Amino acid sequence: MNATPRRTVLVTGSTSGIGEAIAAAFARDGAEVIVNGRDPQRTDGAAERIRATAGNGEIHAVAADVSTAEGVHALTDAVPDVDVLVNNAGIFGAKPAFEITDEEWSRYFETNVLSGIRLTRHYAPRMVQRGWGRVIFISSESAINTPKEMIHYGATKTTQLAVARGFAQEVAGTGVTVNTVLPGPTLTPGVKVFIADRVGDSIPFDEAERRFIAEERPTSLLGRLIRPEEIANLVHYIGSDGASATTGAALRVDGGVVNSIIP
Ligand SMILES: NC(=O)c1ccc[n+]([C@@H]2O[C@H](COP(=O)([O-])OP(=O)(O)OC[C@H]3O[C@@H](n4cnc5c(N)ncnc54)[C@H](OP(=O)(O)O)[C@@H]3O)[C@@H](O)[C@H]2O)c1
């Protein structure tokens, strides 16, 4: 019986939060993992933390801004091939709809959508040539339940669903799958700041978390923020050999916050 080969896994935006947890999950499984963020020190720091828990996983750090074509070129020059691409890097924030400027709309699309498109255009055809690959876009429950104070963010997350489905159709029957994962509200450094902005930072975080879920995400069946490792569990599975029949799908790991039986 042939053993599964060691996979090379690139997780964009893996210096913190969900991306770091995803990178750590693949690393614990013995993969060769490329950690990415914009800042070399933060990227090295995350690689060091993951290395400490990785067992026989091999960890590399490549700092590159994936919101620009130049940054993506720098990344693909440093890492020409991967077996698993996780398009996780993303930005979010709240702003009234009429106040979102053209520049902000562009920045959200460059960071949350074009980054993944550029990287998939580079890596997926090479996966097809090798006959195996996994591309995973990290979208959000906001793709479906777009909060009115985050329409720029929600629009990028909805677009990712269409983009991933299109790429999945393009690589049909090749051994390469393309899927989208939709996390719900998850306790990451970015979300801690976001909640402090929404609920106020004068109360203990436990209380702010409870209030945020009760008041702003009342449909959550989990009744708490999701932990990054809980998102990583699903992404790790979708990136595995075992997930060979799941492609072109949008998969929720949202604590039931989307009030629907199917995505
Ligand atoms: N947390 C949630 O509740 C939640 C829910 C649904 C979906 N999501 C999605 O999950 C993903 C991760 O969210 P998170 O909460 O873990 O975010 P986070 O804690 O703010 O981390 C964001 C990561 O993205 C990196 N990043 C941002 N812009 C980048 C760029 N231009 N180039 C390279 N890296 C970049 C950051 O690295 P540096 O700052 O070091 O550059 C950091 O590692 C996002 O796509 C988000 O939309 C999150």
TrEMBL record:
Pfam families: adh_short. It is an enzyme of class 1 (oxidoreductase). InterPro entries: KR_dom, NAD(P)-bd_dom_sf, SDR, SDR_fam. Signal peptide: none annotated. One of its GO terms (molecular function) is oxidoreductase activity. Its EC number is 1.1.1.-. Gene3D superfamilies: NAD(P)-binding Rossmann-like Domain. Residues 7-188 form the Ketoreductase domain. Keywords: Oxidoreductase. Belongs to the short-chain dehydrogenases/reductases (SDR) family. This is SDR family NAD(P)-dependent oxidoreductase.
